[in-house]
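We treat protein structure as text, and this decision shapes the records that our systems exchange. Below, we set out a record of this kind in full and without editing:

***
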Amino acid sequence: MQRRQLIKALTLSASLVTMGMSWSIQAAETIKVGILHSLSGTMAISETSLKDMALMTIDEINAKGGVLGKQLEPVVVDPASNWPLFAERGRQLLTQDKVAVTFGCWTSVSRKSVLPVYEELNGLLFYPVQYEGEELSANVFYTGAAPNQQAIPAVEYLLSEDGGAAKRFFLLGTDYVYPRTTNKILRAFLISKGVAEKDIEEVYTPFGHSDYQTIVANIKKFSAGGKTAVVSTINGDSNVPFYKELANQGLDATDVPVVAFSVGEEELRGIDTKPLVGHLAAWNYFQSVENPVNTEFVKKWKAYATTKGLPNADKAVTNDPMEATYVGIHMWAQAVEKAGTTDVDKVRQALYGQTFAAPSGYTLTMEKNHHLHKPVMIGEVQEDGQFSVVWQTEGPLRAQPWSPYIPGNDQKPDYAVVGN
């Protein structure tokens, strides 16, 4: 009797060991990919779609055989628009989940929060949103725009005859590093173009701010002093009440055009856009651009949204940070294949010079300065919430992470890793 029980126990033990080995082998057959985006809080309006785009892109790569013969396994975490929590969740992804790469963040304050963690642990972060520059890290690849690929060209357009020949500028933003640094650059640029200090106004509001009645009234008052344009670096769900207040006070684009750097098709989905027709946004991609790659991209996204039952799937839209997410994941996958490993140092080297035919209609190249060459487009809001491109560069521009309008930047290193 005891012998039978011993045999059963040994058999069970062997089975458990075999199962454990099987699970280990199965786990080893996937490559974990971190997705670090706010799915709740003030930034969820912008970041949730980036999480979904990342998942769609991973599904697309897996359907074609994965990377290095392995399936990509997404690990999704929600830092909940809480900036210190980004660092905590980033550390979790690297130390506990053992991800090979992370795609995430929107605000610069969230990126600044995780940056020391990724540099300490030699992690790899792909950041898909336009930003203020003044940073270059060996552990970050910036697939959104640097200031010379969005902010500077947009203001140059506003100064031009085609853009309305603005003489006064109201710089309105959310109170954190991206708007403040971007406006520091823009103020210096405007002054270099002959705009007087008295013709530049700067105002900041907290994250989640919702009462724009006084601010819009002040914009109207400021515009009485000459042809005025508003440069908006408002981020997150505060964009909704801001644009509603513009409509409430009858401030339309013919009087005072607003050019936004953080408002795209996704943010406009929840707004009545009819009163906003003519206002502007500056990006590197719009859903409305016409080319075969974008047609297929938009079609895939709409099908994915419907199949997955995403909220308001019948009104699913693409936007610039979604395109940047899509491009970044594909470039990383290409680099891993080239390197033959997910080792961060080897993948970093393999990323330099990678190209990808993007939905923007251009083949984008990853530079050694960890930025993409990108086209710049100015889009005008249409009644259907889409943008009509009214101006664009002839082709992609090389990013300048260090703005020439900040003193001393000509001494900064051009590459993210010295000697790479």
User: Anything to note?
Assistant: The CA atoms of residues 184 and 406 lie 8 Å apart. Residues 6-27 have pLDDT under 50 and may be disordered. The first strand starts at residue 30 and ends at 36. The first helix runs from residue 2 to 28.
